[in-house]
């Protein structure tokens, strides 16, 4: 009996140690990701300052050239080749800076997407432990939900319409907001309660809605 007890304690300690190790790794990854994002923002800020300095220098050269033409009357116009070379060089530098900025912006977006993906996985895991989930449903053109508001849905208390995605907009559900074809509806609730609701958004009107079934 004593050996069995020690075996259980050892197993629990091993599980706890593994969970602690995974937690430390997850925190380290989040901190490292934030540090990378801060570093990329600093690089982008430095490039913007360089672009401002470069455009300011070109502006001063133009002002100097124009002033010289007005101040020196009766003299041959100064050679424009040097100014043309400066402008061409400045344009090439600005183009290179902008290309680097686009690359940095892409890297920042990728890091933020990784952070969002990690948070979504954690949310799905938390919901799964409680036999719940998040559903993403697109409203079919002939679905029973078209023209109806969320309060017309006979839904269990565990189910909530979290958001409605319509084009580029994120809409909060309300009594005055009716569903349209191609709307993306985000539902959250218990798994057993979500399954009967899906046909209201995705099936044809010939199918019975949850409210009709309950009646």
Task: Summarize, please.
With 215 residues, the protein is an alpha+beta fold. It has helices at residues 2-71, 81-129, 191-194, 198-202, 210-214, and strands at 132-138, 160-166, 169-171, 184-190.
Percent of residues in β-strands: 5-15%
CATH topology of the largest domain: Helix Hairpins
End-to-end gap: 58 Å
Helix content: 55-70%
List the helices and strands and how they pair.
Blueprint: H1 2-71, H2 81-129, E1 132-138, E2 160-166, E3 169-171, E4 184-190, H3 191-194, H4 198-202, H5 210-214
Antiparallel strand pairs: 1-4, 2-3, 2-4
Helix pairs in contact: 1-2
How would you explain this protein's 3D organization?
It contains five helices and four strands, in the order ααββββααα. The protein is of the alpha+beta class and 215 residues long. It has a four-stranded antiparallel beta sheet with strand order 1-4-2-3. Helix 1 packs antiparallel against helix 2. The longest helix is centred in the N-terminal third of the chain and has 70 residues. The protein is elongated, with a radius of gyration of 31 Å.
Features:
Alpha-Beta Plaits, alpha+beta, 5 helices, 2 domains
């Amino acid at each position: 009996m004593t050996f069995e007890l020690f075996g259980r304690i050892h197993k629990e300690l091993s599980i706890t140690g593994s969970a602690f190790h995974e937690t430390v790794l997850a925190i380290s990854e989040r901190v490292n990701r934030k540090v990378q994002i801060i570093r990329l923002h600093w690089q982008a800020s430095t490039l913007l300052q360089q672009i401002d300095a470069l455009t300011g220098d070109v502006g001063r050269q133009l002002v100097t050239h124009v002033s010289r033409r007005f101040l020196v009357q009766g003299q041959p116009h100064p050679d424009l080749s040097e100014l043309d070379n400066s402008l061409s060089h400045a344009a090439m530098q600005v183009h290179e800076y902008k290309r680097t900025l686009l690359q940095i912006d892409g890297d920042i977006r990728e890091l933020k997407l990784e952070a969002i993906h990690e948070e979504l996985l954690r949310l799905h895991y938390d919901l799964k432990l409680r036999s719940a989930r998040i559903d993403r449903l697109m409203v079919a053109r002939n679905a029973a939900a078209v023209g109806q508001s969320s309060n017309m849905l006979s839904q269990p208390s565990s189910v909530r319409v979290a958001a409605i995605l319509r084009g580029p907009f994120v809409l909060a559900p309300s009594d005055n907001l009716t569903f349209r074809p191609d709307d993306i509806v985000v539902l959250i609730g218990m798994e057993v309660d979500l399954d009967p609701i899906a046909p209201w958004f995705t099936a044809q009107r010939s199918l019975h809605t949850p409210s009709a079934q309950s009646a």
